[in-house]
Amino acid sequence: MATAVIAGARPPGWSGVEADWASDQRTFKNVPWGKAMMWIFLLSDTFVFSCFLISYMTVRMTTTIPWPDTSEVFALTIAGHHLPLILIAIMTFILISSSGTMALAVNYGYRRNRKVTAALMAITALLGASFVGMQAFEWTKLISEGVRPWSNPMGAPQFGASFFMITGFHGLHVTIGVIYLLTVAFKVLRGDYENTDYRIVEITGLYWHFVDLVWVFIFALFYLW
Amino acid sequence: MTHAKAEAQTHSLGIYFKIWALLFVLSALSYMVDILGFESYLRWALILTFMFLKAGLIISVFMHMMWERLAMMYAILLPPLLLLVFIALMSLESDYTFMTRVVFFGH
Fold this sequence. Notes:
The complex is a heterodimer. By secondary structure, chain A is mainly alpha-helical. Chain A has a single domain, classed as Cytochrome c oxidase, subunit III, four-helix bundle (Four Helix Bundle (Hemerythrin (Met), subunit A), Up-down Bundle), CATH 1.20.120.80. Chain A contains 8 helices and 2 strands. The longest helix of chain A has 33 residues. Chain A starts with a helix and ends with a helix. By secondary structure, chain B is mostly helical. Chain B has 2 domains: 68 residues; 39 residues. In chain B, helix 2 runs antiparallel to helix 3. The longest helix of chain B has 23 residues. Chain B is flat. Chains A and B meet through helix 3, helix 5 and helix 8 of A and helix 1, helix 2, helix 3, helix 4 and helix 5 of B.
């Protein structure tokens, strides 16, 4: 049987499935397999976040009750000064800085500088963790002011649903990112990637920058609009 | 060693610091839109401009997209354009829902 001969050139069964999916028939030249896959995952995640943001657009456009003034809802009084959106601005700068340290970590990874790479990744994770902490503070403040997913004292009831869904899902991504970063940083420090040219740091970086990217859209469309 | 990777490896740190600073400036500017109390179309235009500039810088430099091959750029950056159709559909539908609510609930 000719087909059996051809099929016999490659392993059968489950090992064949694995071998075929891992074979060298690649569209994306010059990039490691893992990096192409991370990009495709991020593309799918883009659609998930887009669904949330488009839902938010829809409920905001359809409500007949005025939308709460986010500038005032997220204002804080610090040392006697009333500052609109201040916490959100600080969170934005923190997340951008974590993206900066991550970009540096990728560069130092390719230079095979293990200690600096791991340290920069740890700083990135620390900034990420502080972001999640501020988000927890923000959630606590809003919940204590009576904001619920179904109602709130400031205006359109859809505000709470949009807020908890969008920032919650983003916060979950940041939290997973912090764990991911710390895991990879530990493995870098241990020398696990000494013979793989540190592409894994760049792949981890892609995920982290994406988290920052999503925040850019949330900051503009949810908080500032 | 491939061209794209070799480039990603060898370019100096300077570009990251410049983009980092630029992202700070753009974030500060979008925050200023709120502080200065710009309203309506001016507000939305400024917010969207700063948002897309920031997104572009993050994707192209921090995520190294400007050093990737065109096949990769198209595969990742073109599909999200479909979202424009989704946004258009939902905003048309929203206008209809809003008008229906106004008519029936009299708000």
